[in-house]
Design brief:
This protein has 251 residues and is an alpha/beta fold. The chain is 45% helix and 15% strand. Strands 3-2-1-4-5-6-7 form a seven-stranded parallel sheet, sandwiched between helices. Strand 5, helix 5 and strand 6 form a beta-alpha-beta unit.
Length: 251
Protein backbone atom coordinates (compact mmCIF):
# COMPACT_ATOMS: atom_id res chain seq x y z
CA UNK A 1 0.00 0.00 0.00
CA UNK A 2 1.39 3.40 -0.97
CA UNK A 3 1.37 6.38 1.36
CA UNK A 4 3.55 8.50 3.61
CA UNK A 5 4.40 5.45 5.72
CA UNK A 6 4.89 2.91 2.95
CA UNK A 7 7.21 0.08 4.03
CA UNK A 8 7.44 1.38 7.60
CA UNK A 9 6.65 -0.86 10.57
CA UNK A 10 4.72 0.48 13.56
CA UNK A 11 3.90 -0.84 17.02
CA UNK A 12 0.76 0.70 18.54
CA UNK A 13 -0.22 0.00 22.13
CA UNK A 14 -3.74 0.36 23.51
CA UNK A 15 -5.04 -0.29 20.01
CA UNK A 16 -8.31 -2.04 20.80
CA UNK A 17 -10.62 1.01 20.81
CA UNK A 18 -10.88 4.79 20.77
CA UNK A 19 -7.74 6.76 19.98
CA UNK A 20 -5.53 3.67 19.63
CA UNK A 21 -7.82 2.05 17.06
CA UNK A 22 -8.02 5.30 15.09
CA UNK A 23 -4.22 5.56 15.08
CA UNK A 24 -3.96 1.99 13.79
CA UNK A 25 -6.39 2.67 10.96
CA UNK A 26 -4.66 5.92 9.97
CA UNK A 27 -1.16 4.43 9.96
CA UNK A 28 -2.36 1.41 7.97
CA UNK A 29 -4.10 3.65 5.44
CA UNK A 30 -0.79 5.48 4.98
CA UNK A 31 0.97 2.22 4.15
CA UNK A 32 2.48 1.07 7.45
CA UNK A 33 2.65 -2.54 8.54
CA UNK A 34 1.43 -2.89 12.09
CA UNK A 35 1.78 -4.80 15.30
CA UNK A 36 -1.17 -3.86 17.51
CA UNK A 37 -1.55 -4.71 21.16
CA UNK A 38 -4.01 -4.37 24.01
CA UNK A 39 -5.39 -6.39 26.88
CA UNK A 40 -8.71 -7.20 25.24
CA UNK A 41 -8.05 -9.77 22.54
CA UNK A 42 -11.45 -9.87 20.85
CA UNK A 43 -11.74 -6.25 19.59
CA UNK A 44 -8.02 -6.14 18.87
CA UNK A 45 -8.14 -9.20 16.68
CA UNK A 46 -11.30 -7.94 15.00
CA UNK A 47 -9.54 -4.66 14.13
CA UNK A 48 -6.49 -6.50 12.78
CA UNK A 49 -8.69 -8.77 10.66
CA UNK A 50 -10.66 -5.82 9.30
CA UNK A 51 -7.48 -4.02 8.22
CA UNK A 52 -6.18 -7.08 6.38
CA UNK A 53 -2.67 -8.03 5.38
CA UNK A 54 0.36 -6.58 7.10
CA UNK A 55 -1.41 -6.26 10.46
CA UNK A 56 -0.80 -8.49 13.48
CA UNK A 57 -2.54 -8.31 16.84
CA UNK A 58 -0.84 -9.59 19.98
CA UNK A 59 -2.72 -9.46 23.28
CA UNK A 60 -0.51 -8.27 26.12
CA UNK A 61 -0.57 -6.82 29.61
CA UNK A 62 2.13 -4.17 29.47
CA UNK A 63 2.67 -4.32 33.21
CA UNK A 64 3.95 -7.89 32.99
CA UNK A 65 7.65 -8.65 32.87
CA UNK A 66 9.12 -8.81 29.33
CA UNK A 67 5.92 -7.60 27.60
CA UNK A 68 7.68 -4.61 26.04
CA UNK A 69 10.65 -6.66 24.90
CA UNK A 70 8.39 -9.36 23.44
CA UNK A 71 6.28 -6.89 21.48
CA UNK A 72 9.29 -5.20 19.91
CA UNK A 73 10.73 -8.63 19.12
CA UNK A 74 7.46 -9.56 17.38
CA UNK A 75 7.79 -6.52 15.09
CA UNK A 76 11.31 -7.55 14.13
CA UNK A 77 10.41 -11.22 13.68
CA UNK A 78 7.35 -10.52 11.51
CA UNK A 79 8.49 -7.49 9.51
CA UNK A 80 12.26 -7.29 9.96
CA UNK A 81 12.37 -4.00 11.83
CA UNK A 82 10.47 -1.37 13.79
CA UNK A 83 10.30 2.22 12.56
CA UNK A 84 7.48 3.70 14.66
CA UNK A 85 6.43 3.21 18.27
CA UNK A 86 3.18 4.74 19.51
CA UNK A 87 2.90 4.62 23.31
CA UNK A 88 -0.86 5.01 23.60
CA UNK A 89 -1.93 2.49 26.26
CA UNK A 90 -3.12 4.09 29.50
CA UNK A 91 -5.61 3.76 32.31
CA UNK A 92 -7.69 6.61 33.66
CA UNK A 93 -7.89 7.69 37.28
CA UNK A 94 -10.19 10.09 39.10
CA UNK A 95 -10.02 10.57 42.86
CA UNK A 96 -9.35 12.96 45.71
CA UNK A 97 -5.60 13.44 45.90
CA UNK A 98 -5.20 13.17 49.66
CA UNK A 99 -7.03 9.85 49.93
CA UNK A 100 -5.82 7.92 46.88
CA UNK A 101 -4.45 4.54 48.06
CA UNK A 102 -0.81 3.92 47.17
CA UNK A 103 -1.87 0.73 45.39
CA UNK A 104 -3.99 2.78 42.97
CA UNK A 105 -1.13 5.21 42.37
CA UNK A 106 1.24 2.37 41.58
CA UNK A 107 -1.28 0.80 39.18
CA UNK A 108 -1.65 4.05 37.22
CA UNK A 109 2.11 4.56 36.97
CA UNK A 110 2.75 0.90 36.05
CA UNK A 111 0.68 1.27 32.87
CA UNK A 112 0.90 4.95 32.01
CA UNK A 113 4.55 5.58 32.88
CA UNK A 114 6.69 2.53 33.58
CA UNK A 115 5.33 0.44 30.68
CA UNK A 116 5.80 3.36 28.29
CA UNK A 117 9.40 3.81 29.47
CA UNK A 118 10.15 0.13 28.90
CA UNK A 119 8.65 0.23 25.43
CA UNK A 120 10.68 3.32 24.63
CA UNK A 121 13.85 1.57 25.82
CA UNK A 122 13.33 -1.58 23.78
CA UNK A 123 11.96 0.29 20.79
CA UNK A 124 14.97 2.61 20.73
CA UNK A 125 17.38 -0.31 20.95
CA UNK A 126 15.71 -1.93 17.94
CA UNK A 127 15.75 1.38 16.01
CA UNK A 128 19.34 2.27 16.85
CA UNK A 129 20.84 1.09 13.56
CA UNK A 130 18.47 2.97 11.23
CA UNK A 131 16.53 5.52 13.24
CA UNK A 132 12.82 5.86 13.83
CA UNK A 133 10.03 7.80 15.45
CA UNK A 134 8.60 7.36 18.95
CA UNK A 135 5.31 9.10 19.74
CA UNK A 136 4.03 9.22 23.30
CA UNK A 137 0.36 9.98 23.84
CA UNK A 138 0.25 12.26 26.86
CA UNK A 139 -2.66 14.57 27.74
CA UNK A 140 -3.73 18.16 28.19
CA UNK A 141 -3.46 17.25 31.88
CA UNK A 142 0.33 17.10 31.58
CA UNK A 143 0.19 20.87 31.16
CA UNK A 144 -2.80 22.08 33.23
CA UNK A 145 -4.18 21.25 36.65
CA UNK A 146 -7.63 19.70 37.08
CA UNK A 147 -9.06 18.74 40.46
CA UNK A 148 -9.40 14.98 41.08
CA UNK A 149 -7.02 14.17 38.21
CA UNK A 150 -3.68 14.63 39.99
CA UNK A 151 -2.44 11.04 39.79
CA UNK A 152 -3.31 10.63 36.12
CA UNK A 153 -1.80 14.06 35.40
CA UNK A 154 1.42 13.13 37.18
CA UNK A 155 1.74 9.89 35.21
CA UNK A 156 1.39 11.77 31.93
CA UNK A 157 3.56 14.66 33.06
CA UNK A 158 6.38 12.22 33.73
CA UNK A 159 6.17 10.96 30.14
CA UNK A 160 6.17 14.53 28.81
CA UNK A 161 9.42 15.20 30.69
CA UNK A 162 10.87 11.87 29.59
CA UNK A 163 10.15 12.73 25.97
CA UNK A 164 12.26 15.88 26.06
CA UNK A 165 15.27 14.13 27.58
CA UNK A 166 14.91 11.07 25.35
CA UNK A 167 14.73 13.27 22.26
CA UNK A 168 18.09 14.81 23.09
CA UNK A 169 19.74 11.53 24.04
CA UNK A 170 18.46 9.55 21.07
CA UNK A 171 18.89 12.21 18.38
CA UNK A 172 22.42 11.00 17.43
CA UNK A 173 20.85 7.62 16.58
CA UNK A 174 18.35 9.22 14.23
CA UNK A 175 15.46 8.53 16.60
CA UNK A 176 12.89 11.28 17.06
CA UNK A 177 10.73 11.37 20.22
CA UNK A 178 7.62 13.53 20.48
CA UNK A 179 4.36 13.84 22.38
CA UNK A 180 0.80 14.15 21.17
CA UNK A 181 -1.39 15.62 23.92
CA UNK A 182 -5.11 15.17 23.30
CA UNK A 183 -7.72 17.30 24.95
CA UNK A 184 -11.21 16.02 25.72
CA UNK A 185 -11.81 13.42 23.02
CA UNK A 186 -15.08 11.74 22.06
CA UNK A 187 -14.16 8.12 22.72
CA UNK A 188 -16.18 5.25 24.23
CA UNK A 189 -14.53 6.10 27.57
CA UNK A 190 -15.75 9.71 27.34
CA UNK A 191 -19.23 8.59 26.33
CA UNK A 192 -19.42 6.22 29.30
CA UNK A 193 -18.28 8.98 31.67
CA UNK A 194 -20.80 11.41 30.20
CA UNK A 195 -23.63 8.90 30.53
CA UNK A 196 -22.83 8.52 34.22
CA UNK A 197 -23.42 12.22 34.90
CA UNK A 198 -26.74 13.42 36.34
CA UNK A 199 -27.30 15.80 33.39
CA UNK A 200 -25.18 14.61 30.43
CA UNK A 201 -26.40 17.27 28.01
CA UNK A 202 -25.51 20.09 30.37
CA UNK A 203 -22.12 18.62 31.21
CA UNK A 204 -21.28 18.20 27.52
CA UNK A 205 -22.29 21.79 26.75
CA UNK A 206 -20.17 23.08 29.62
CA UNK A 207 -17.20 20.97 28.52
CA UNK A 208 -17.39 22.18 24.93
CA UNK A 209 -17.84 25.79 26.06
CA UNK A 210 -14.31 25.74 27.51
CA UNK A 211 -12.74 24.69 24.20
CA UNK A 212 -11.94 27.63 21.86
CA UNK A 213 -12.62 25.66 18.67
CA UNK A 214 -16.03 24.77 20.07
CA UNK A 215 -16.10 20.99 19.82
CA UNK A 216 -14.57 17.88 21.31
CA UNK A 217 -11.63 16.22 19.60
CA UNK A 218 -12.27 13.04 17.65
CA UNK A 219 -9.93 10.04 17.68
CA UNK A 220 -9.17 10.83 14.05
CA UNK A 221 -7.91 14.31 15.04
CA UNK A 222 -5.36 12.67 17.32
CA UNK A 223 -4.47 10.00 14.77
CA UNK A 224 -3.69 12.67 12.16
CA UNK A 225 -1.09 14.25 14.46
CA UNK A 226 0.46 10.86 15.20
CA UNK A 227 0.65 10.05 11.50
CA UNK A 228 2.41 13.34 10.79
CA UNK A 229 5.02 12.78 13.49
CA UNK A 230 5.53 9.22 12.24
CA UNK A 231 6.29 10.38 8.72
CA UNK A 232 9.32 11.92 7.05
CA UNK A 233 7.35 15.18 6.84
CA UNK A 234 8.35 15.61 10.50
CA UNK A 235 11.99 14.68 9.96
CA UNK A 236 13.27 17.79 11.78
CA UNK A 237 10.83 17.66 14.69
CA UNK A 238 11.83 16.08 17.99
CA UNK A 239 11.35 16.76 21.69
CA UNK A 240 8.11 18.65 21.22
CA UNK A 241 4.41 18.27 21.97
CA UNK A 242 1.53 18.69 19.56
CA UNK A 243 -1.51 19.68 21.60
CA UNK A 244 -4.62 18.31 19.90
CA UNK A 245 -6.99 20.14 22.22
CA UNK A 246 -8.83 22.77 20.19
CA UNK A 247 -6.88 25.56 21.90
CA UNK A 248 -7.74 24.52 25.48
CA UNK A 249 -4.19 24.81 26.85
CA UNK A 250 -3.53 28.02 24.90
CA UNK A 251 -5.88 29.95 27.19
Amino acid sequence: MSGRLSEKVALVTGATSGIGAAIAVRLHNEGARLVLTGRNASPGQHLADSLGSGVHFQAADLTEMNSAQNLVATCVELFGTIDILVNNAAIDHVGELTTVPIEDIRAVFETNTFAAIQLLQHGALAMSSRGGSIINITSRLAAVGVASMAIYSASKGAIAALTRAAAVELAPLGIRVNNVAPGMTKTPLFDAWLASQPDPDRIERETVSRIPIGRLATPDDVAAAVCYLSSDDAAYITGTTIAVDGGYTAQ
